[in-house]
Amino acid sequence: MLMGLKQPLRQGEVFPLTLTFAKAGAITVEVPVKAAAEMAPMPGQHR
Questions:
Q1: How far is C-alpha 8 from the chain's CA centre?
Q2: Is residue 36 classed as helix, strand or coil in its secondary structure?
Q3: I want to staple 41 with a disulfide (CB 3.0 to 4.6 A). Which of 1, 20, 45, 46 is the partner?
Q4: 8 A C-beta contact, residue 11 and residue 34
Q5: With contact defined as beta carbons under 8 Å apart, do 24 and 18 qualify?
Q6: Are 18 and 26 spatial neighbours (Cβ–Cβ below 8 Å)?
Q7: 0.70 surpassed by pTM
Q8: What CA–CA distance (Å, rounded) separates 26 from 36?
């Protein structure tokens, strides 16, 4: 879950997300914004 966003996410956009790990440090990844219907269900999740 993303909290404290300054503006809404728009489908089709890509934004950088920095993950900080105790041993690996900070890693930045590019995250594409997709419609909820485009996302595959997680293991154990039923639609």
A1: 13
A2: helix
A3: 45
A4: yes
A5: no
A6: yes
A7: no
A8: 27
| Tens-digit pLDDT profile for residues 24-42 | 999 999 999 998 776 667 6
Cα→Cα distances 43→9, 32, 36, 39, 40, Å: 25, 21, 16, 12, 9
Cα 47 to Cα 40: distance, rounded to the nearest angstrom? 10
For residue 46, give both structure tokens: 């039923």
**5-23: pLDDT as tens digits:** 899 999 999 999 999 999 9
Q: What CA–CA distance (Å, rounded) separates 6 from 23?
A: 29
- Counts for the chain of helices (H) and strands (E), in that order: 0, 2
